[in-house]
Amino acid sequence: MHTKGRKDTDWEGGVYKLVLMFPEDYPQKPPKCVFTPPLFHPNVYPSGTVCLSIVNEEQDWKPAITVKQILLGIQDLLNDPNPLSPAQADAYMLFKKDRAAYDRRIKQQAKENFPRG
């Protein structure tokens, strides 16, 4: 599946491939959410795995959480990173130390992920 960058954000225009892997015991356990290719983002591991509390079994996962809620949560996270839960050192450091450079990098990433055709 794909998720779009929200309008009026630095992510706008980008379309990002997201793989949701559902375990056999879903919905008791959350799906694993992975961007392919991995995104430059403080809360996305270098592997592409999303670090988000609502898809973390030890944190805020509840079986009633829907796929739509997960996707909306990921869209929110893209534009509003959680600095308390860093997953990617380079993105985290740039986000914390030079927000303007981080924003430029995100805008460039969005351009690189514009739909072709």
Structure commentary:
This protein has 117 residues and is of the alpha+beta class. The protein has one domain: Ubiquitin Conjugating Enzyme (Roll), CATH 3.10.110. It is 31% helix and 12% strand. α2 packs across α3. It is globular, with a radius of gyration of 14 Å. The two termini are 18 Å apart.
CATH C-level category: Alpha Beta
The rough form would be described as: globular
> What's the CATH topology name?
Ubiquitin Conjugating Enzyme
Tally of domains: 1
Number of H/I helices: 3
Element-level helix/strand string: EEEHHH
Mean pLDDT: 96
- Sheet with the most strands, sense and barrel status: 3 strands, antiparallel
Architecture per CATH nomenclature, i.e. the level-2 architecture = Roll
Helix content: 25-40%
The portion of residues forming beta strands comes to: 5-15%
- Low-pLDDT residue spans: none
Q: What structural class is derived from the secondary structure elements?
A: alpha+beta
Number of strands: 3
C-alpha end-to-end distance: 18 Å
Enumerate the strands of the largest sheet in spatial order, edge to edge or round the barrel.
Answer: 1-2-3
CATH superfamily name?
Answer: Ubiquitin Conjugating Enzyme
